[in-house]
Amino acid sequence: MTNSAIVWVLIAFGVYLIGMVFIGAVYMRRNSNSEDYFLGGRNLGGFVAALSAQASDMSGWLLMGLPGAVYAFGTGQAWIAIGLFIGTVCNWLFISARLRRYTIRANNSLTLPMFFENRFHDKKRILLSVSSIIIVIFFLVYTASALAAGGKLFHSIFHIDYRVALTVGTIVILIYTFMGGFMAVCVTDFIQGMLMLVGLLAVPLVAYFTMSGNIGDVLNQSGVAGGSASFVNLFENNGEPIKAIDIISNLAWGLGYFGMPHILVRFMAVRDEKELKKSKVVAILWVALSLGFACFIGVVGRAYLYPVILGAEGAASTENVFIEMITKMFTSQFALPFVGGIFLCGILAAIMSTADSQLLVTASSVAEDIYKGVVKKDAEDEKVLIVSRITVLVVAVLAYLIALNPNSSIMTLVSDAWAGFGSAFGPIVLLSLFWKRTNFQGALTGIISGAVTVIVWDYLPVINGQTIGVATGLYSLVVGFAVSFVTIVVVSLLTPPPSEEILKEFEDAKNGI
Q: Is residue 513 helix, strand or coil?
């Protein structure tokens, strides 16, 4: 990239980042209490809810990890996208409306841990405390992975020091989340979601229609394993038949949606169920297009960038396929580096939209659930907001320190955190909404057993010095989700049933009363 092109890309990044900070400043004046800061006063519009939920979900993985995997090994890597699409559809169709109703019926719960406490009338606040601790631990690492991805993006494009790049990205995310709270995060996520979608659609289509020659022939020339037919075969991976255990593990990513606090909180914040119906259509359409075209980028990029082979000695990583396509397309072929910079901002948007949501959910767990819920129950809203903002600052600094290592494995951290949330919270969210026999004992043991299973599966080297996950190749979410689900059902049936008051609340939420 020439010096003049870098200047134009920097200008595009500057305009984008300043815009995000401006939104935070605007919404800072509108936060008068904790419900405004954490849920936007339950006044979220349908389109904003849909795109902010999905943008906060996908992160840099959508524009870097998934296209890079398809570029390297073929469309057999798309099973994870299929699993995520199925999970997204189920989450919006079956969870969103009932969760919104139930959180209002359960004493206007503002956070997921608070919902668990109110749903099961946990006066000792054990569920709230345990859930909040799990959220803080997993999101601390999750946020660090997002910040690290942002640092690597800046480093890859501008060749500036990784730590300097990491610092710039962290400061911008911190500022608008610190100031504006939930609505600032959602509005910025809405803009970021639109930016991501435009980039995902435009770049591969322009690349495809400007290529000369048959794409299959170019794929063969690029040395794809098994040839072009194998490369675009959903049931082959790197030239070999895909294993059933790999398909199961990749599809299982969809189970994680039922337990993701930063996604579920969007359902709780939507203005009304009419807006929620609008959100469902928009969100499902966005996800289908985004995941499909992310895979398309991997395929087209393999041919478009040839004779350059990413991942080879001296070449950029395969995860940079989207970046490399934009660089080639808009700084050499079309000489529109500012437009290319805007598309590159789509990658930054994906990263930031996840990090800001994680910071806010962590802040809500500490301030609303732990501080006000356990430490100081009569805390005023003004003090809760102060604690929230301090938490955002502290968590951002800790995540920044974790992310300082440029060699940290982003995908591994994301995978483990996704499995942890999906296993700890997914089954209890499902059963608390749809099975009235679920009780406090079942909920507590289910949350703990799910989280512990993932930790054991992914971190303890119990099989010849390897973790069970590495030894078996089975994703920990599959096992953790099953263990948690079964534990909740068995323990609930072996212990006293819920009170009549809890059962009445369940029926009220079910019937929309």
A: coil
> Of 132, 172, 151, whose CA–CA distance to 356 is shortest?
172
Which residue do the tokens 């134009």 mark? 8
Task: Please give the Cα distance from 222 to 214 (Å, whole number).
Answer: 13
- CATH architecture for the domain at 3-27+35-406: Up-down Bundle (1.20)
Query: Is it true that the peptide bond before 307 is cis, omega within 30 degrees of 0?
Result: yes
Dihedral sign from CA coordinates of 390, 387, 428, 186: negative
Q: String of b and e for 159-181 (b: at least 16 CB within 10 Å)?
A: eeebeebbbbbbebbbbbbbbbb
Strand, coil or helix: what is 44?
strand
With H, G, I as helix, E, B as strand and everything else as coil, classify residue 236.
strand
Instruction: Report phi then psi at 224, rounded to 5.
Output: -65, 140
Give the relative orientation of helices 273-304 and 162-210 as an angle to the nearest 10 degrees.
Answer: 80
Can you give the pTM of this predicted structure? 0.83
Cα–Cα distance, 183 to 179 (Å, whole number): 10
Is residue 178 within 8 A of residue 23, CB to CB? The reply is: no
**DSSP secondary structure of 117-132:** HHHTT-TT-HHHHHHH
Closest CA to 357 of 193, 124, 123: 193
pLDDT mean for each 10 residues of the chain (513 residues)? 72 77 65 52 60 66 85 93 94 91 86 90 91 84 77 75 80 65 63 79 90 85 90 92 93 93 80 79 90 94 91 77 84 64 74 71 74 72 75 81 72 81 96 96 97 93 88 94 98 96 92 75
